[in-house]
Amino acid sequence: LCLDLADWDATEAAVGAAGPFELLVNNAAVAELQPFLEVTRAALDRSLDVNLRAVLHVSQIVARQMIAQGLPGAIVNVSSQASQRALRDHAVYCSTKSALDMLSKVMAMELGPHKIRVNTVNPTVVMTDMGRINWSDPQKSAAMINRIPLGKFAEVDDVVNSILFLLSDKSAMTTGSSLMVDGGFLVS
């Protein structure tokens, strides 16, 4: 499906008609970086729409279908190390990712009785198109890499492998957790 997840009605129609689902990965995100004193309403609204509201909405649609099927399921929300650590010019991004972590915990609590597990992966900078756009300045990226004990940014496969683990039966007793895929950034 190709749709704008910020469009509540279009998302409801498209995702509601798809399925049935047993697994869900919420990975859509925007990162509109602005200094705190310069945050615009447009950047805040867009970030809330995509980084939080869309996750809540898509997860509601899919979880309702999972419950109706009576089968266990798993949801993984892609968050960020930025949910745990303040980063300059990331006021909105850090805030939406922190909210996503808490939403995931509430979802885990409420969906657990239906045998639906909910977790987050919280990567460091990942070398996607968005990661390259926001971290291409060598001076900016060097300051971040110097705070990562493993000395590098994550690759897509690092995050995908963590997601696959959380979706699999190998994590059957894991719910409401955040798996840091940050190269040690949060321990430094």
TrEMBL record:
Pfam families: adh_short_C2
InterPro entries according to UniProt: L-xylulose/Carbonyl_redctase (IPR051737), NAD(P)-bd_dom_sf (IPR036291), Sc_DH/Rdtase_CS (IPR020904), SDR_fam (IPR002347)
A GO molecular-function descriptor: carbonyl reductase (NADPH) activity
Biological process per Gene Ontology, one example term: glucose metabolic process
UniProt KW S-adenosyl-L-methionine keyword: no
Gene3D superfamilies noted in UniProt: NAD(P)-binding Rossmann-like Domain
TM ranges: none
Phosphoprotein recorded as keyword: no
Keyword annotations from UniProtKB, A to Z: NADP, Oxidoreductase
PROSITE patterns: ADH_SHORT
Superkingdom, taxonomy of origin: Eukaryota
Record-stated family: Belongs to the short-chain dehydrogenases/reductases (SDR) family.
Subunit structure: Homotetramer.
Protein's UniProt name: DER reductase
Organism in which the protein naturally occurs: Fregetta grallaria (White-bellied storm-petrel)
Top-level taxonomy: Eukaryota, Metazoa, Chordata, Craniata, Vertebrata
Gene behind the chain: Der
